[in-house]
Amino acid sequence: MSLASSPSVASGSGSDRWQILRLLVARKTVLISLIVLVVLVAAAVFAPWIAPFDPYKLSIMNRLKAPSSLHWFGTDDFGRDVFSRVIYGGRLSLTVGFMVVVLSSVLGIVLGLVAGFFRGADKVVSRLIDAMMAFPDILLAISLVAALGPSLSNVIIALGIVYAPRLARIVRASTLVIRELPFVEAARALGVPTRRIVTVHVLRNLMSPLLVQGTFTFAYAILAEAGLSFLGVGVSPDIPTWGTMINGGQQYMGTADWIMVFPGIAIVLAVMSLQLVGDGLRDVLDPRLRKEL
């Protein structure tokens, strides 16, 4: 068996990738979720051209206006257009989620590969992972943000650290299996450097579970950022994110519900869509589940 023929989803043929895509969009819930995500991302990217008002501009004369043809989602307590702030808030909320996925993936992959491939480091890294997962996610995130200071970058760092153990456990479990497969043994016998074995022959075969877990982490990070901002320990209140908007509107619950309702709907749509896409990816990338589709 040649080393080049080692199984890897990442290196699958073009026909296999098209088949996976067809199976994915064949499910109506996944297709709708993908459309919702595309709309949310497009709105965030093109916010300067879509938003009808400046999200930071104050207009006390128009404070707490109900939704109308002029202000589709109404205005907040400072007269700012809620629709514009929801769009701009999506830019930051989605950016935080994406950056958390990147950071947690890097940390999780490193920890998981070290624990799974190098037997001597397994116990130490595994105990570290177990210790971090012993704390509830939100409490650990609050502690880290409190230690680092409330800012957008520190929220990303804190959440990246919080969700890294989840990915590390998945990488470690998969690496323990992959390192015993024949193509890895063949690479060792041929004297291939350990670094190349880990990065080329092991890491490539972890892309499927990492991709699935990444969608779930994205959703968790959006919820966590909203939770931190709602509790007042996240980003600065003057920065429009979906969480800070809900936090700012809680005192007007019952009199100006739209301030909280519309960013809340945006969070629900983003999180549910990511979760459903993650479920769909898990089903089509797992050969055992794909047979049932």
Description:
The structure is a single chain. This protein is mainly alpha-helical. It has helices spanning 14-26, 28-45, 47-50, 82-117, 119-133, 137-148, 152-178, 182-189, 194-202, 207-231, 242-249, 258-285, 287-290. It has one domain (23-58, 73-290): MetI-like fold (Orthogonal Bundle). Helices cover 71% and strands 0% of the residues.
Secondary structure topology:
Elements: H1 14-26, H2 28-45, H3 47-50, H4 82-117, H5 119-133, H6 137-148, H7 152-178, H8 182-189, H9 194-202, H10 207-231, H11 242-249, H12 258-285, H13 287-290
Which key features would you list for this structure?
mainly alpha; 293 residues; 13 helices; MetI-like fold; 0% strand
Q: What is the chain-wise order of helices and strands?
A: HHHHHHHHHHHHH
Look at the structure and name the CATH superfamily. MetI-like
Helical content band:
over 70%
The radius of gyration is 22 Å
Overall mean confidence score, pLDDT: 82
| Domains (count) | 1
Question: Architecture in CATH?
Answer: Orthogonal Bundle
Form type: elongated
- Proportion in β-strands: under 5%
Largest sheet: none
CATH class: Mainly Alpha
The number of helical runs is 13
Uncertain segments are 1-11
Structural category is mainly alpha
Got a strand count?
Answer: 0
Terminal-residue CA separation: 31 Å
CATH topology: MetI-like fold
Summarize the structure.
This protein is mostly helical. The protein has a single domain (23-58, 73-290), classed as MetI-like fold (Orthogonal Bundle), CATH 1.10.3720. It has 13 helices and no strands.
